[in-house]
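Notes from hallway chat w/ T.B., transcribed later so I don't forget. T.B. wanted the structure written out for a chain they're using in a teaching module, and asked if we could keep both sequence and structure tokens in one place. Agreed to drop them here.
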Amino acid sequence: MTLLLLPLLLPVLTGLWFWSRPLLRGTWRRDPAWFAWTAALLLLGAGVAYLVGSLAGASLDPEEACHRAGQPYDREYRRANFDEYTRWFPLHDRCHADYDLVPAWVNPALVALPAGALVSVGYGVGLGVVRRGASRPETDRF
């Protein structure tokens, strides 16, 4: 299993190393590219969270997934709430009214991570605009 994860983890760890170097040196505050990479990492995290949530239970048979989780399966509840577990957001895969196979952290992460990415891109663009404006020579127009 570790041998299978190594080709996936190696690029991620390398990217995190290069992302964290400006953070450790303290130069991240002045680097618009760092904020762009931060946004990319946050969106990658949102994608992973969505994948985790959509694969919750990881079975084509929801009854089997519920029994594996130690919960009873309520067929009538699933039939009455069909639209709840077929939506794109928020993610739910309920066994019954009180138990959801989707971890509780997934839906808040699907809101917070893209919002953080948007803030990061906005701040990076603002830094780029300020830097570009500061590097232009002032010319008299009169």
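Follow-up for T.B.: The two ends are 71 Å apart (CA to CA). Might be a good example for the class.
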